[in-house]
Amino acid sequence: MAGTDEDAVAAADDALYVLTAVLLTPAKFPSVLGDDYPEACAALGLAPLADGYGLVLGQDGEGARWTVVIDDVSLVAVAIASWDCGMEYDLSPDERTVVAALPGWPLAVAVAAPGVPAPHDPGPDVIDIPALTPPDTTVWGPAQRRLGADEIALQWAVWREQIDDSEFALPQGKGAGADAGSEDAGGSTASDASPRDGDAGTDADGATEADGGAEADASGKDTPKGHSGIRRVLAEVRAYVDTPPPLGRVRSSFAPGDARTLRADGPGWSLVARTDDIAFVLLDDEPGEVLPVGRGPELPGLLEALDKMAVRPL
Questions:
Q1: Which structural domain range is residue 174 located in?
Q2: How far is CA 221 from CA 49, 95, 167, 285, in A?
């Protein structure tokens, strides 16, 4: 496996200053790395183990960036939960849990260890493989699209309050199911999901940063046949119910009340939804646009089916 050279492991383990950590599991992984769990693992040269990994990002005594992969997922989960609560937690993985020591960082980290040189990649005298680098999120593409979907899931209320449900009304004389598969997509509006100045990225907690304050376009895109991109996405999502996609492409997480937050991804698209509400779609083909999808007669059943098949955090 890439990065398991004994010298590299020793270099990373020698006074590693831990800056942050993230989970890499089927139910929770840095979506910036891929549309599903196997794709995210492949970005790091790792096998998609069922139990997943913990990624510990830090610097060695020379300031070099290292990503230490461990198989003690529970340890990393406890550390992240403690940090999220504002508590201190000394994350010190046991050497026996180390799966790989990878040079570089796969995510952008906004902090640095004090008292050591500025973050930099290990030199060629230490490693003989390319160092990991974060995906380019300065331009719209799959990585930024997934970060935008992350932001909507995290800030659902902010995005939801921008949408007027009356915008989903179909033209007079058209029943709610007149356009098969539209899910009221004909009433979709566009909101700006582009992070300002291209500063979308992953911070030290693994959380995304994106501009959630854009306002919905009042002009809308009402057409009897609906938005073709949304119709394509919904068709592909329905296909997931019949033929399960790669692990992690459909995930279910906590939401207020009895609802769940659903996240689905596919080639060129991301979908975020609440099981008791609407959905939002982002497309590679439409930079910076957030397309809301009304409940309609079919969306509730589709979301329920997705939730049943989705991967959930343990």
A1: 142-309
A2: 43, 56, 9, 16
